[in-house]
Amino acid sequence: MSDATREIEALIELMARLPGLGPRSARRAVLHLIKRRGQVMAPLAEAMAGVARNARECAVCGNIATSDICDICSDERRATGEICVVEDVADLWAMERGQSFRGRYHVLGGTLSALDAVGPDELGIPRLAARVAQEGTREVILALNATVDGQTTAHYIAEALEGTGVAVTSLAQGVPIGGELDYLDDGTISAALRARKRF
Ligand code: ZN
Fold first, then answer.
1. Residue 4 pLDDT more than 70?
2. Could you tell me the CATH number of the domain that includes residue 32?
3. DSSP states of 81-117 as a string?
């Protein structure tokens, strides 16, 4: 038992459900918040309430937005004819951090899985095909994880888009920047060898 009141204990329990926070770090975080409630906790609570109220899925791409259409989809400068398909919003954010993709996205929200009964409709694959036709998309870039489910899904999408005239490409797999061969797993080395290019 701790000395915290029931209300504070409830807060700690909620915080402990966050990814990366266990009961100990949740307790520490809550204590920190309470000590700095004016500067940190009150603005945090306000920001959280706002996002909880307004967060939704972008009706076009599935990105998380605070309006019906996300900032990327409503940015005319990003109508480049390229759609990058990712599994999750976290992957979209990772792509955006790279700052080299200027097109738009399609967020699947998962991968095809017979086990979990996730089919093409749940992933919005028909919606993607409709976008390709409507937006005159020239290239669909599959940026899916190099897992069995990710690659199964990639093949399914490529087949679904066959005959639309759009070029379907996928991210190259290989040696990461700064990576040393000796530390790579066999699969990565084989993929890098297959994706080799003229020096
Ligand atoms: Zn969007």
1. no
2. 1.10.8.420
3. SEEEEESSHHHHHHHHHHT---SEEEE-SS--BTTTT
Determine the distance from the C-alpha atom of residue 92 to the mean position of all C-alpha atoms in its chain, rounded to a whole number. Answer: 4
Measure the CA–CA gap between 94 and 171, rounded to whole angstroms: 13
Centroid of ligand 1 to alpha carbon of 168 (angstroms) = 20
- Centre of ligand 1 to C-alpha 69, Å, is 5
Instruction: Quote the tokens at residue 19.
Output: 């990814």
Whole-angstrom distance, CA of residue 197 vs CA of residue 19: 39
pTM of the predicted protein model: 0.83
pLDDT tens for each residue of 114-173:
788 888 888 889 999 999 999 999 999 999 998 889 999 999 999 999 989 999 999 988
Question: Coil, strand or helix: which one is 123?
Answer: coil
- pLDDT, residue 108, reads 95
Please report which confidence band the pLDDT of residue 2 belongs to, taking 50, 70 and 90 as the band edges: low
Q: How far is the CA of 160 from the centre of ligand 1 (A)?
A: 21
Q: How many domains does the chain have?
A: 2
My answer on whether 90 and 171 are in the same domain is: yes
Distance 199 CA to ligand 1 centre (A): 37
Closest C-alpha to 125, from 138, 109, 141: 109
13 Cα: distance to centroid of ligand 1 (angstroms):
34
Please give the residue range of the domain that contains residue 34. 3-54
Q: How far is the CA of 72 from the centre of ligand 1 (A)?
A: 6
